[in-house]
Specification:
The chain is built from eleven helices and no strands. Helix 2 runs antiparallel to helix 7 and helix 4 packs antiparallel against helix 9. It is an all-alpha fold and about 300 residues long.
């Protein structure tokens, strides 16, 4: 589960970077910028290392990226502005694991054991306690924001389940599943056109750069975008894919559900917003669930 922990860490740092990048660039350009950075960064490494991308089941990862990094991340960015980070992340992280469990059962016919699911439930309970506060923002936007968060959770689950689908295709062909970097880059290839198309359509009236904050702090703004791309769809997704290659989607998503707790700690360090007692209590419960899960 080490790669799942690393994925949670990098996803949490990516969330912090995304908040700062969105402040400078607006949500749409920040989202497009981060996946573009990941595309060129991971793509250059793939090219120089000579890794192959065409293997049995590669199509599943393209589809998973289109739905997860494409549709899912678009829904995620826009849910944050409507219902606040706390409620949005709570919905996304708690629903992604059961969605993945259901999809794995429907498409692959297998699921984690009852004891493993019990431990996963403890993790999700801890996250719910830590983030379970009243939603922020205009109450009239709750319905749309909640719907977008649920869509983001479903997209994350579909993206996760695409890995065991690709793994099953490789096993059927008698070939090993490539490493997380190759898998992650295929997901980026699937997600980038979706994000690009949506951003161009959504900014068609005002222009792609209309939401950039003036005066533009070039070095600081670009640094946040660079770190956002490398931490999230870059290194984070690669670790995520490595974890999914050896463990069930529902269990990996349960570990990754710790990322909002890490994100709140990063927010404290970067922005000075100190988490309250509920965060520490929920975090302790979630960590207990993780320890129990590692013994199963």
């Amino acid at each position: 589960m080490e790669f799942a922990f690393l994925a949670a860490f990098f996803f949490a740092w990516s969330i912090t970077c995304a908040r700062r990048s969105s402040y400078h660039h607006g949500a749409d350009l920040a989202n497009l910028g981060r996946i573009t950075v990941a595309f060129f960064g991971i793509g250059a490494f793939i090219l120089c290392s000579g890794r192959g991308l065409l293997f049995p089941g590669w199509q599943w990862l393209i589809v998973g990226g289109a739905i997860g990094l494409g549709i899912g991340d678009i829904a995620s960015f826009h849910s944050l502005t409507r219902i606040g980070a706390g409620l949005a992340l709570l919905i996304m992280q708690t629903l992604a694991a059961p969605f993945a469990l259901l999809l794995e059962y429907l498409f692959l016919g297998h699921a984690p054991t009852l004891s493993q699911m019990g431990c996963a439930a403890v993790i999700l309970l801890g996250v719910a306690i830590a983030l379970g506060k009243a939603p922020e923002g205009d109450r009239r936007l709750w319905k749309l924001g909640i719907s977008l968060a649920v869509l983001a959770a479903l997209g994350q689950a579909v993206g996760a389940v695409s890995t065991p689908m690709a793994k099953a295709a490789c096993l059927a062909a008698g070939q090993p599943l490539p490493d997380g970097l190759s898998q992650g880059f295929l997901r980026i290839l699937g997600g980038l056109p979706i994000v690009l198309g949506f951003v161009l359509w959504n900014t068609r009236g005002q222009g792609l750069f209309a939401q950039i904050r003036r005066p533009y702090e070039s070095l600081k703004a670009r640094s946040w975008m660079l770190m956002n791309g490398l931490a999230g769809p870059g290194i984070g997704v690669a670790c995520y894919q490595w974890a999914l290659s050896t463990h069930s989607s529902a269990l990996v998503l349960s570990i990754v559900a710790l990322s909002p707790l890490f994100a709140l700690l990063f927010q404290w360090l970067v922005e000075g917003q100190r988490p309250g007692p509920r965060v520490w209590i929920g975090g302790a419960i979630a960590i207990v669930g993780v320890i129990l899960l590692r013994t199963r």
